[in-house]
Records
---
Amino acid sequence: MSIDLEIARAATLRPIAEIAAKAGIPDAALEPYGKYKAKIGLDFVASARADRPRGKLVLVTGINPTPAGEGKTTTTVGLGDALNHIGKRAMICLREPSLGPCFGVKGGAAGGGHAQVVPMEDINLHFTGDFHAITAANNLLAAMIDNHIYWGNALGIDARRITWRRALDMNDRALRSVVGSLGGTANGFPREDGFDIVVASEVMAAFCLAHDLADLQRRLGRIIVASTRDGKPVTAADLKADGAMAVLLRDALAPNLVQTLAGSPALVHGGPFANIAHGCNSVMATTLGLHLSDVVVTEAGFGADLGAEKFLDIKCRLAGLSPDACVIVATIRALKMHGGVAKADLGREDVDAVKRGVANLARHVENIKKFGLPPVVALNRFTADTEAEIRAVQEAMAALGTEAILCTHWSDGAAGTVELAHAVMRRLDAKEAAFQPLYPDAIPLAEKIGTIAREIYRARDVAIPDSVLAKLKRFEAMGFGAAPICIAKTQYSFSADPTAMGAPVDHVLPVRDVRLLAGAGFVVAITGDVMTMPGLPRVPAAETIRLDEQGRIEGLF
Amino acid sequence: MSIDLEIARAATLRPIAEIAAKAGIPDAALEPYGKYKAKIGLDFVASARADRPRGKLVLVTGINPTPAGEGKTTTTVGLGDALNHIGKRAMICLREPSLGPCFGVKGGAAGGGHAQVVPMEDINLHFTGDFHAITAANNLLAAMIDNHIYWGNALGIDARRITWRRALDMNDRALRSVVGSLGGTANGFPREDGFDIVVASEVMAAFCLAHDLADLQRRLGRIIVASTRDGKPVTAADLKADGAMAVLLRDALAPNLVQTLAGSPALVHGGPFANIAHGCNSVMATTLGLHLSDVVVTEAGFGADLGAEKFLDIKCRLAGLSPDACVIVATIRALKMHGGVAKADLGREDVDAVKRGVANLARHVENIKKFGLPPVVALNRFTADTEAEIRAVQEAMAALGTEAILCTHWSDGAAGTVELAHAVMRRLDAKEAAFQPLYPDAIPLAEKIGTIAREIYRARDVAIPDSVLAKLKRFEAMGFGAAPICIAKTQYSFSADPTAMGAPVDHVLPVRDVRLLAGAGFVVAITGDVMTMPGLPRVPAAETIRLDEQGRIEGLF
């Protein structure tokens, strides 16, 4: 049994109504899902947003991820716990994990050690059913497209130009590319199709950016699923699918409340991919959290070049949020990998490698400042880290005027992040934030891509083929010129080359394609191979997951 | 707004803990899902089955369905309500509705009028997520099959002989027949595949027949998904998928408690197809209900030739249940259709047509007696029914020694089924039941098919091609000779010809194919076209389903 699971099982959870009461949520607003999970009613969300003051917003992001691991989720949980520990009212906002990766290699996504959200097995499996609801909405739309064509195609959909794909919350490479509607007249017109994992569905992105139920239904209606032979877009509203999709998502849109091992309230809601989508938990949860607490601690997917940039330029821009500080998580081990050390050699002290690798961290720190936010570095400590290695990071950060705080929440829980919590509070109390998105709404879409590439990725240039530029012009002509950009890029590097670690310079960002996600409200720029349906490994985790004789789950983590 | 929905919305629901307490279920055994739904913990199910006396079991079944409608679910609800009304402790056990048909033509499946289970919108949509869990388990197994082949196919699976299909809870004809794993090396080996609606998945059947979690895991392991080139079966256990599938289903296996409009407790759990599977709610729910009440009222899919026969020969046999009485639901309208009247002409009195059509009902009455059960006919009254028509039915039933009771639960609730409740109690109090399945375990599989065809369908003969007989012999050689038979046949007739209404004679039952469902534990005999993935109609209900300005659901019913 894993240590994470052992710790989670040993914990005594408090009834969710008690956690809710502490967070200022009355019983009447709770829809319990078992004893330790609850959804928070949409009416209460609306009234809290209208009536209560808004707290501060702190984003937890990271350096470019490496196989060494960084611990962004554990730091988010640890920071929230520590803020509560020092007497602040803090709410933690996380993404919901996808079911698919649980059965592959990834394992759970509910934190670890003494910095976990619980009940971790529920959260990692079906939880409150949100992803199943999103899957159903996605696939109802797909069924209605083929059904529309089957019954005469009054809208004139060009079957070669259907862009809407089906979805499952499963790692299943066999579904990436299929030909459907085979088998004769009764089954429709055969065409190429495919499935994405549900976190890559535009329904997920629209769900996470919706301000309320009415906004969600409008966004769903705007989703473009295909075009006619003469290029006219066909939307979910044209197919009259938006209403039923919203009905399927009504209960799911209510944020989910759980607790950390330390008893902090946590809203775990929504979970879009961080490449093809914006990689943050729902606007519903974040805004609710802000009106229930002094400080919301939330995280964004991948490193700060993708996660923080999208959180700030997409989520905060579209939701009217103004964050107040940003924590950047790093580990000595990961910095050594950015400095060129192989994973097998991480056990040896290598101060020079740390000094080289810290360039990755330093660039993220500089980038965060470009958004007008004060950064704090959280150095997530591992036992093998040496004093000299730690000093190398702290000195580099001091040179940038940024604190780098050692954290030991994995082993010590809230006590291990108290210093980080104080550092964050210093930034908040000093009111240092002057948030502004990286680029204004009004500049051309191509220019927005160029701005992100140059300012955040530090690319020398952007390569956009004429055909792709023409698509961007078409999106602008369609009225989507003000949309923010969501870049799908490797998470392992500032550049589009996943092997270029540290702080690569002089690279060119190649934009292969662009897509308009009209329902989500952003334009995706694709800069490499984007995997929207993972596969299972040679020996999937599923093979060792089972129930023991007491009916308890074995092998999930 | 439909009348059903209007009535449901006007109802004041009681907190589910109150309903549970009335049914003898302590708070500690409840896992609430919102305020009006709860799962009942597996530990409590086990202890109730061990410690509490077992009540009586009453099956509600019907004549062969017609477009006129019979009202089996409303009668089940009405009878349960009336039994509680007259001072018995009754539990209602129903199947969970499938999400797919809600968006097609069917509408909801939670009863109607004043005989409904509520909250009806939840029950008809995601409910407690059971079907989503079953979908995930089905599709994890599918992914593990293709993944196994992808990584070298150590088990030697013959890709042409994979019988396991993927599943969704959606009406989507485009997925009936697909070719998957297209797109190159990274996506696997292309092969023919397809999706069934989840109620047709063997996981659903195994789930509904499982006695407990350990039994479920064993059943899942036995599921045969493919064979090798030399015909050796490959199971879910061979693929090591059974454990993870059981983990996905763990929470789902706990029965769901809701209430009727009259406040009766109802267990709504599981919902396998009634053609390719056995069409009853879960063994978990039925056995729990029996140990919580004086009388369990439950229903089975389609008419008694399919639903009751399978309930008795499959579910009761495999679960060791011994039912005590059987209610057969009919309407004057439907009997007139069996007597040859067109739907458009049902408004006119036609006593002769009733007299002709009653032959269908009479045969079902005779059949039920063959199982050693006392039948009671419930005549579900419509306003246009005339006294002379009703008398024709009652006289025909009296000639068989069977009571035919007029019911008006749709408009009157429990008061409209009090007389039926008394008639049922007379049968129970007289201890008339001497239940025995139609055929013993030990006879050959082909002979079991013949017995059902002759005794229940009144076929002159059964036509089984030699190739199909050879398959049955193979199943016997594999050790499944004792399995019961599940016949997939049209529900509209005793025969395999859907247009042969009334009580057809001299027909031959053609068995086209047989399948071994080793996990569910029965052999399916297919006698016609079996649709395992419905399509959407020209104007799907989904087009008019949406949220109103208060966020309430419109158009679902």
---
Amino acid sequence: MTVAQVDAQGRLRHFLTLEGFPRTVLVRLLDLAQHFDERRGDPALRHTLAGRTVCTLFFEPSTRTRSSFQIAAQSLGADVLNFDASTSSTSKGETARDTLKTLEAMGVHGFIVRHKDDGAVAALAAEARPGTALINAGDGRIAHPTQGVLDMLTLRQAKGADFSRLKVAIVGDVKHSRVARTDLHALRTLGAGEIRVCGPASLLPTDATLEGCTVTDDFDAALEGVDAVMMLRLQRERMEEGLVGSLADYHRDYGLSAARLKRAAPGAVVLHPGPMNRGVEIDDDVADGPQSLILRQVANGVAARMAVLEVLLGA
Amino acid sequence: MTVAQVDAQGRLRHFLTLEGFPRTVLVRLLDLAQHFDERRGDPALRHTLAGRTVCTLFFEPSTRTRSSFQIAAQSLGADVLNFDASTSSTSKGETARDTLKTLEAMGVHGFIVRHKDDGAVAALAAEARPGTALINAGDGRIAHPTQGVLDMLTLRQAKGADFSRLKVAIVGDVKHSRVARTDLHALRTLGAGEIRVCGPASLLPTDATLEGCTVTDDFDAALEGVDAVMMLRLQRERMEEGLVGSLADYHRDYGLSAARLKRAAPGAVVLHPGPMNRGVEIDDDVADGPQSLILRQVANGVAARMAVLEVLLGA
Amino acid sequence: MTVAQVDAQGRLRHFLTLEGFPRTVLVRLLDLAQHFDERRGDPALRHTLAGRTVCTLFFEPSTRTRSSFQIAAQSLGADVLNFDASTSSTSKGETARDTLKTLEAMGVHGFIVRHKDDGAVAALAAEARPGTALINAGDGRIAHPTQGVLDMLTLRQAKGADFSRLKVAIVGDVKHSRVARTDLHALRTLGAGEIRVCGPASLLPTDATLEGCTVTDDFDAALEGVDAVMMLRLQRERMEEGLVGSLADYHRDYGLSAARLKRAAPGAVVLHPGPMNRGVEIDDDVADGPQSLILRQVANGVAARMAVLEVLLGA
């Protein structure tokens, strides 16, 4: 990281990654997100960020994540500017830094940035002037910190605050997934009891990412007795790249069916960051079943983003 | 329809189609739209939907209809989220249902949906949770109910509330037109005196759609003595599909000129849903002439949408 | 011009061009922009345009200019509708006039219009009904009047209100630049002491545009003793059109480096309308150096647009 996201007083200046993130600050974010989750739609919240301008600055498109941030910012009373950097000045050869500095000069106080490159948002944060806050809405393969907050909030609501009692399985294309790495950072920070990582060898990282995890390519073994299963989306590109075989093969080996889910602990919960490939990594009866927290994750996403926005931009 | 748009108490839950729509509910919508038309810009209206979030969820693009709904929602104080489903998660293989459920979980209360398939919006409405309302902003060839409300409001303002005295001609590509079918439903519900339908045989439906209408391919005959002419847009695709000849031919046979319009009753009015193909289905001196209500339709479109939004989402 | 932008009482009805613009009205706009620049973020400003709807109607894309107008309008409390006319009804064959009249009927009070053709915005203004105001956000090669206001505001803040003492150089592709022509109009109106225009002969206009200017293709000579250097963006198309050689050649002859800037008067300031081609028309150490006012221009852009919106649409 080229810029400190937490200052000497423990105050958050930017929100860039959950790697090495202080436990106390994360727990404070979770508490605040829980608070917002319980107060959704309260008109008094409109004063929180009134007069503040927030810009979604997306160098790669994601309507879904952008919408979640937009609803979070609007419900706190902020003005929202959507800047699609993939079809703008950037494509005229302007640098990402100049786009940021330009919008900052226009009066934007907070940036929600998505970028395809690892560390791109941290690099931009280093260029921001004091008082401007950047939120990483996903960059490269490593960081998507608000996803980490919403996933931990979802687990905490379902299973309680003591993560040391929790066995969690993360399943699928871990190698290319910023969601997986972010959740790994968060689960370690909160002291999860056991983290199992499962996927075909071609989709598992070989570097230090999985240190301390139980790693296996056997999905049935990975599920045995876990309290939570975090499924990952399979990008279709992986087929074209030859990293996995057919969709049918993948589904047979790594698709979560109701039958398979029975191996998990009673009351185990299922998460998925969306959008889902139904019939590939997850079956309908699991996605829509009683153990699924997938829509809860979406609702928590707005609450988590409200918390981050409030901490960074509130008075 | 897979879901009831009106509940047992006659309250509107969704607004999906004017086919079989209760007359009393339609008249109430017209009265409310008239009320909003007279109060446009009144700042007190801002409280109507304050704190409510409305999402335009368009699976096929229509900037014009989207803008009308956006202005209507904003003028009632709602937050508006524009979700272009043709360039979003949907294109990553997510189902329309999952997109809807995701946005609903984010806190969207009302959806304004456009889709290319017949019945797509009603099918989505069946998936919505209680308290979520869907408005059909046009799907397939059958339903575009807010267009029906605005057209009836426009006729009522010009010709009075007694539709039984009215002779109306609907002209052009009725076969592919959701506007035409919606207006037919509304005119029947309000008891229009005579409905004439006119167009080349290749552009007229052969099913039960035109039951009870006077059908002809002779435009001059269709115009004779009518009180209102509802012109339809000719999609250029019809030429490519070989359903009509050249634009010049079409204009000669089915273009509304000032000379032709003289066949209608004195004081007859002209409607068109827009966007117009000037010089094809309508001439400049008619479109911009004293009998044209085309811009009145546009203004009424906002008032009609305000009425629907208020009924579905107001306190 | 087909429509008067200033009425008999000196009131602005539209803002179309700075060509022949009255000096008193321009100075009033500058004073008001200065006022807004000092009050940015004041919540009391929200009442200025509350209940007014402003539409950005862009027939050619420009996310940057659109964003500046959107922030200006929002900070005055207006509702903003973004209408991308390059992907809308217009592409279905609707005329620009019909698009305008349709949005006007929906309740839009002010239009911010960008178009590729000279005079397109003035032609549209002639079609607007009384009470509707149009702002030219750039059309053709001639007019971009809010850019002129922001550039003059920037010069005035740096160098004082007496433009007769000012030597200004405008450098680059003047031939194709609406920014250059607009600044020429404004500088003449404010009585700039000397205007030097510099660029390769292939990029300088040969008509009356440069009347009264000192014209040269020698950049070093043009810089000698000037108080302000206004650099223009080099569009990559100029290479493809054979109007300039390589980027390296252009940079050698017309790129502003720190060394070159020493020829200007002490305390000379550097302007650029953005987006910049760093390393082509301007070097990093100039763009980011102490004499650069480039981000000040961006901030002034919002203040200038607030001033224009307030004058045209305020109570």
